[in-house]
Amino acid sequence: MDKTPAKMGLINTVFSWSLQDVLNKNLYKSKVKKIPAKFNSTTAYLESFKLPLIEETQADLLSSLTTESMALSLEILSVTHSKGHSPKNLTYDLIGTKVSEKNKGTYQPAPGDLIVLTGIRPKCTADLNMSEDSYLIASITWVDHENPHIFSILSSKPLMDEENMKMLGNIKATRFVVFLTNMITNVRIWKALNTDPDPNGKTMNLIKNVLLKSPADEENCTRCLHGRSCGTSPSYSRSIVESFGLNDSQEAAVLTSIGNYSCHHRNTVRLLWGPPGTGKTKTIGVLLFALLGMKCRIVTCAPTNIAVLQVASQLMSLVTKSTEFETYRLGDIVLFGNKERMKIDGNDDLLDIFVDSRISNLSNHANELSKRVDVLSKCFSPLDGWCWEF
């Protein structure tokens, strides 16, 4: 069996890491290569992103272990075998303490969460290194929505004596679950990278549009620039972009994307890639700001609510700080997503553009308008309208 990370699968690769592996900043430094500008095939294209995704997942775990997220823990009261449990499928049903007014800071399990089971409530990373079984990693596969303290996990190691159905002696002290990170997005990306797409399907056609360039794609399309559907000249867009102090590659990405938006006959799919911290969110925010000023209609999507929130926050920051703020109507910006997961209740700027808030405000205005119409209709009644006073 091939034990390379790209062949093992993402969850199995994470399960194979020891605590020392997770804390090793250079674990994949020599294995991850720079993603090339050209690819020989679609398979090579998909393969080139697997190790970078694994490296990013390891970096997320390292960050979790060295930040305050370890403060999120839950005491476990019961552990039993799940239905379908086997030596090769280490699934368990857990019952933890309920969240109450007294323990509001208690961790609330969610599907896709990566957790550590340990015998103590850790205060620092060193507490997870006290013994061989202080770091036992697992993934949450199911949560009871009505009773979120009841959930199922897939464990990297056995928690129970498979013959006697008793907790193993060296793990019997395991009484706490500690949250690390959520794996849903990374697992979705991994599945996409490992899915064999239909050669004639839309997914493959999109990939080919990115990979296969024609000579016309490298040329400026003056015909489309003059016949664009958006308002505002390219020179105006350039002046906006240059005012934000982007570096050369970021500025080029924004200006190229604006130019591509105006083209209707050549390949307009572009990939903007960069390691964490290289300013991708800022670059996208500036691009959206420029397109907003050009009165273009844009849909911005992301695999998680948090990612959408970050882009929306970046755009709103640029809009509110702009000297031309009056020319940009906030009514032209609408934010969609899971309000509970986005946690935007304390962010007034984002609440102003959140779709649920918009609907609520419109409903309140409609009710108020209805009341006024009702009063006015009585005032103008031909029989008794004269009786009404204000």
Keywords:
alpha+beta, six-stranded antiparallel β-barrel, two-stranded antiparallel ribbon, 390 residues
The N- to C-terminal Cα distance equals 85 Å
Helix content estimate: 25-40%
- Give the CA-based shape: globular
Strand content: 5-15%
**Structure classification:** alpha+beta
Mean pLDDT: 78
User: What order do the helices and strands follow?
Assistant: HHHHHEEEEEEEEHHHHHHHHHH
Sketch the major β-sheet. Answer: 6 strands, antiparallel, barrel
Strand line-up of the largest beta sheet: 1-2-5-4-3-8
Number of strands: 8
Q: Any idea what the radius of gyration is?
A: 27 Å
Instruction: Enumerate how many helices there are, as a single number.
Output: 15
Low-confidence regions: 168-173, 225-229
Outline of this structure?
By secondary structure, this protein is α+β, with helices and mostly antiparallel strands.
Topology, pairings included?
Layout: H1 5-8, H2 10-16, H3 19-23, H4 42-47, H5 50-65, E1 73-81, E2 91-96, E3 113-118, E4 136-143, E5 150-155, E6 160-161, E7 166-167, E8 176-182, H6 184-194, H7 202-211, H8 222-226, H9 234-242, H10 248-261, H11 280-293, H12 305-321, H13 339-342, H14 348-353, H15 355-379
Antiparallel strand pairs: 1-2, 1-8, 2-5, 3-4, 3-8, 4-5, 6-7
